[in-house]
Specification:
Shape: globular
Number of domains: 4
Number of strands: 4
Distance between the termini: 65 Å
Largest sheet: 4 strands, parallel
Order of helices and strands: HHHHHHHHHHHHHHHHEHEHEHEH
Strand order of the largest sheet: 2-1-3-4
Radius of gyration: 28 Å
Length: 518
């Protein structure tokens, strides 16, 4: 029996024992049930004790040159796919004993309803879930690059060693699950779902943690937030089941904390608390949007409100003056101060203020670090939450057709930002590309792994999404020069019209020369 089912059974048993403290008939029924369980388990144990064991000699090893493959439970090294956590002590079995006195039952009940995961562990679960979200996304990106034939150097993994090893074991489970059908191509999006569900758990915990940290929450906040945690942890469990992975310790701890907190604050959670009522992990993006929407209703401090009003005024000046360099410097400074003073880079209202202006952002190499963090959070948000229609925008203009003529059946390398599947497909189709090789990047990441992709004979040019890349990625130009590939700096978004305009303005002559010599 899985840990999950045993936890569910144990929780129901505890509830029955609490009810039995004041119900004599129920106590009698429970004692009868306990005697039946004890008798049944004793009989099974006796038969197991006398049953002969299968001798080891009956297992025939594969001879040299043979490969024996048996599809069954994953091997032990795949099961150990979780971060190390202290084992949970077994609880004492009390079914079948005489009922305690009323005062004793109240004492025992208080002990049993205490959360196994305390509020002190709250931020630790949130932090581990964020790390695992990065690890799962890294595993998915690694598989996409391998499938595209793009170089992927494990030693340059943008995650810590522990998470890298965890992500590798997650990938092992993913392929073990697909081993029975060698003809089918494994669906890498299943790994994306794991990462997205981990992020949803982390974000939902962050939403509730705000209540505990600031002591300003109320019952209504919990009644709205706890069901979101229930859906997130349930979706995470379902995501692991879909890749054939074992139970995740942080998901189990989230479930235990949720169950205890809901009981302590008398919050009824209608859905996603049972093994037969699980959330859909593929809907993690929608769940994140609902968590984000609820967080936006959280009361902001007067200081944060004043900071947002200042940013709003600075952006108004950008619009009225067509965005002078002085205006943009004021915007950068306003955002930088907000982040330094504690405003989360993912703050929803700050993001909504900046989004309409990002396509007009000037080409600046030395953006303040806080502003760059905000841009990265906006990119992550756009990659996971915006509908496909927001990617395509208006229809293709004549510039797109001209760029498509010059790039027909060739490939492009795009470096920077978070890979957006919809934007990748739209750009590939609009520009008539054979392939769009999108390489995600992290701060301080080595650029050595990029050169093999740039050197490919079918690659016509390299797009550098400077908004999302650190200044160090300007060194990519050395590789482009070495392999005679034009480098196009992409300060705006991924709309085909914008991308085509940058390509034509920065390297149309080189592309025409290439087309003429082909």
């Amino acid at each position: 029996m899985s840990d999950w089912l045993m936890k569910v059974i144990r929780a129901e048993a505890e509830r029955l024992m609490e009810l039995a403290a004041e119900d004599a008939d129920l106590r009698a029924d429970l004692r009868d049930l306990a005697e039946e369980i004890l008798a049944a388990t004793e009989s099974l144990q006796t038969r197991a004790d006398v049953a002969p064991l299968e001798p080891a000699s009956r297992v025939k090893p594969a001879s040299s040159g043979e490969h024996s493959v048996t599809l069954g439970p994953p091997p032990p090294h795949l099961i150990q796919s979780d971060l190390a956590l202290a084992p949970e002590p077994l609880r004492e079995l009390t079914l079948g004993r005489s009922s305690p006195s009323q005062s004793e039952s109240r004492s025992v009940s208080a002990t049993r309803t205490a959360p196994q995961t305390s509020d002190d562990d709250f931020s630790q679960i949130e932090g581990r879930c964020r790390l695992k979200a990065e690890g799962a996304r890294w595993a998915a990106e690694r598989q996409r690059r391998i499938r595209e034939g793009t170089s992927f150097e494990v030693e340059n993994a943008p995650v810590g060693q522990e998470i890298e090893q965890w992500a590798s074991r997650l990938t092992d489970c993913f392929y073990w699950m697909n081993a029975s059908d060698a003809s089918a191509t494994p669906d890498i999006s299943l790994l994306d779902h794991v990462g997205g569900c981990f992020e949803a758990v982390a974000e939902s915990f962050s939403l509730v943690r705000h209540r505990f940290d600031n002591k300003r929450g109320n019952q209504k906040v919990l009644e709205r937030a706890l069901p979101l945690i229930a859906e997130a942890q349930s979706a995470l469990r379902a995501a692991f089941q879909r890749i054939g992975g074992p139970d995740d310790s942080d998901q189990l701890q989230a479930f235990e904390w949720l169950k205890a907190t809901a009981a302590r604050h008398h919050v009824y959670i209608k859905r996603f608390m049972r093994a037969d009522d699980m959330a859909d992990p593929s809907r993690w993006s929608d769940l994140l949007a609902r968590i984000d929407a609820l967080g936006a209703h959280d009361q902001e401090s007067q200081q944060q409100r004043a900071q947002l009003n200042r940013l709003r005024d600075e952006l108004k000046l950008v619009r009225e003056s067509s965005g002078t360099s002085e205006n943009w410097r004021s915007v950068f400074q306003a955002v930088e101060e907000m982040v330094i003073e504690g405003m989360p880079p993912s703050n929803r209202e700050m993001r909504e203020l900046l989004l309409p202006f990002l396509d007009d952002l000037p080409d600046v190499d030395d953006l303040p670090p806080g502003f760059r963090l905000v841009l990265r959070e906006i990119d992550r948000f756009s990659a996971t939450r915006l509908p496909p229609a927001a990617v395509t925008g208006q229809g293709p203009n004549p510039g797109v057709k001209e760029a498509a003529r010059l790039l027909a059946n060739r490939s492009i390398v795009l470096i920077g930002g978070v890979r957006r599947t919809d934007a990748q497909k739209v750009l590939k189709t609009a520009l008539g590309l054979n392939e769009l090789i999108w390489i995600e990047t992290k701060e301080h990441q080595s650029i050595r792994a990029f050169e093999s992709s740039i050197a490919r004979a079918d690659v016509a040019l390299v797009l550098l999404a400077i908004r999302w890349s650190s200044h160090a990625f300007g060194e990519v130009k050395q590789f482009c020069d070495r392999h005679a590939k034009p480098l196009v700096r992409l300060p705006g978004g991924y709309n085909p019209n914008q991308v085509a305009a940058q390509i034509l303005s920065q390297c149309s002559d080189q592309l025409r020369e290439q087309a003429g010599s082909a």
